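Quick one: structure for this chain?
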Amino acid sequence: MLYLFCVFVLLQQVHGKAKMGQVVKEDLQYIACDVCEATVTELYSATQNARSLQPKNKLDEVDIVTIIESICNPSSATGEWIRKIDIIESTLKDKRVLSLIEPGGVAKCGNECATIAKSCQNLLHEEIDADELSALLWKNKSSLDELKVGSTNGQSIGICFLPLNFQIVT
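Got it. Here's what it folds into:
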């Protein structure tokens, strides 16, 4: 039995990581706003960290695009935040409410992780203008709060305000 376990672990190391959990499609609609705020927070933090490592604190547009492309991948260093998040369920006035919490530590990517990653991908590939987001991060003139829900110079830039025609991609 121990031999089979060792072979299994060795095969996972040779052939890549264990398979990611399954997306819980019915949860996507309940976590979209929280995932948006977490994603924008992590993008802002990752670009600020990358910027601090560069001469004159400048990033190329390619650097920003690389960060955006990896933010929803829980296997990447930039997307590791997804493996730190849990989804908790509660009810409010007889309605189902799901919230994201960060209990501490990094977990394997199970169903919650896969669901958060899918919601993150939906956000970046279906719901927002990635070019606009990239430009905002590159210009570095917006605060984190302005990026998430606010405006700058009278112009609305809130990424996490979802349009009235918002639909969940499953």
